[in-house]
UniProtKB/TrEMBL annotation:
This is Uncharacterized protein. The keyword Signal applies. Residues 1-23 form the signal peptide. The keyword Signal applies. Residues 104-127 have a biased composition (Basic and acidic residues). Keywords: Signal. InterPro entries: PELPK1_2. Residues 31-51, 90-127 are annotated as: Disordered.
Amino acid sequence: MAPRNTVIFLLGLLLSCVAMSGAARILEEEATAPPKVEEEHSPHLTVPELPPLPKVELPPFPEVHLPAKPELPKVELPPLPEVHLPAKPELPKVELPPFPEVHLPPKPELPKVELPPKPEMPEFHFP
C-alpha cells in the first residue's frame, strides 16, 4: 500500500514541476518579447465644465423646549441577608527538603579585547 501512495505522490510532484516550468517559460517569453503597439488614444477624457450649483439657504433651525424631568422616588432596598459559610478546612503543612548547596568554580577572567580605532567617514556633500 505504501509503494502505491509513494508512486502517486511522485507522479503528482512530477506533473506540478512540468506545469511550473511551462508557466515560467511563458512568463520569460512575455518578458523578453517587444511591447505591443497599442492604438493611439487621448491620455485623458475631456469632461465638459458643469455650471456652478446654486447657493441654497436653509430655514432657521426651530428652538426645541423639552419638558422638565420628573423626579423619581427613592427606592429603599431591603438589607442583605447574613450568610453563614462553613469554616475553611486547614490544609496540611508540607515541608520541603532543604535546598542543596552548590559550589561552582569561579568564573574565568576573559582577556580584554581592544578594538582598532574606528575609521572616520569621509564627508559627502550633494552637488
